[in-house]
Structures are given as C-alpha cells and as structure tokens.
Design a protein that fits this description.
This protein has 169 residues and is α+β, with helices and mostly antiparallel strands. It has one domain. It has three helices and seven strands; from the N terminus they run H-H-E-E-E-E-E-E-E-H. The radius of gyration is 18 Å and the shape is globular. InterPro entries: Papain-like_cys_pep_sf.
C-alpha cells in the first residue's frame, strides 16, 4: 500500500510541476482571482481533469470528484469553511489525489484515503462551457505531457550513450 501511495505521490508531483507554467498562462488569459493565495487557485477543475487522464494512462482507474457547498456541505473543508473544489479519485488503491489544495493553505500535493475528512464529494455544478473547457485543456495538454515523457526518455538514453562512450561524465 505504501508503494502505491508513493507512486501516486510521484505522478501527482510530476503533473503539478508540469501544470505550473500552464496555470500562469491561464491566469494571464483570464485574469488572476482577486486576492489570489496561490498559483493553483481557480485551476482545480482543469487540473483534476488532466490528472485523471494521466492516471488513466498510467493504468489506474480514476475519476473526477467535485464538491460545491451550495445546497450541501460538500467540497474541501478549509480553515475558513467548506470551499468548492475538484480532485481526482483513484479506485485501486482507493485514494484521493489533489494537486491544488494549496489554494486553501494546505499541501500542494495530497494523496490520502477516500475517508479523509477534508473531502466531501457532491456534484459538478460547473456551467457547460467550463466543462467543455476542461476537456479542451486536457486534449491540448496530453500530447505535451506525452512528448515530455518521450523527450525525457530520449535525454536519458542520450546521457547513457554518452557515459558509455566517455563523452560526458
């Protein structure tokens, strides 16, 4: 179980690092939220949708989860109250994967059990255009994510070849 959580934490950390420059771009295009606490603020839906796709490509059964405190007590339980939020849920091992909780003053990457009291799942209350935007963003980013992996593999192979030939130590 610890190995599964470590793998999820590694993947989540890589996804977050990949998304940071995209968050900056999203804020430049849409304007930063007023009183912004972190760069991840206002990005949870798009980031979680992308996270789910990466987890699926890694062979894990994953889905998005949402919480909107309007009409129910669901979302992310932050010190200042329950906040609307989106995160990923992995089925096996049953884990919550959240890469944007720092917008509420929590850790930047959280991998935790599905019974974590900070998370209360509800329904997706996003407007249809926001849901479509999540899909467009995911479709645009996945080829960049895949290329990043291929480029890293090529760089490692090149480094290995240079080490073997003594070109670089």
């Amino acid at each position: 179980m610890a190995e599964d959580s470590a793998r999820l934490e590694r993947i989540a950390g890589e996804v977050r690092a990949f998304l940071v420059p995209h968050w900056a771009e999203w804020h430049r295009k849409a304007g930063s939220p007023e009183g912004q606490h972190s760069l991840s603020e206002g990005t949870c839906g798009r980031s979680s949708r992308f996270m789910v796709e990466v987890l699926r490509e890694a062979g894990l059964k994953a889905r998005m989860a949402f919480g909107c405190p309007i009409g129910c007590d669901c979302g992310f339980c932050a010190p200042e109250g329950t906040r609307g939020h989106a995160w990923a849920v992995v089925r096996d091992p049953a884990r919550i994967v959240d890469i944007t909780a720092d917008q509420f003053g929590d850790a930047p990457v959280i991998v935790t059990g599905v019974d974590d009291p900070r998370y209360h799942e509800g329904h997706d209350r996003a407007d249809p255009e926001w849901i479509e935007n999540r899909e467009r963003v995911m479709q645009r980013l996945m080829p960049l994510w895949r290329a990043r992996g291929l480029n890293a593999d090529k760089a490692r192979a090149s480094d290995d070849a240079m080490r073997q030939t003594g070109e670089r130590t």
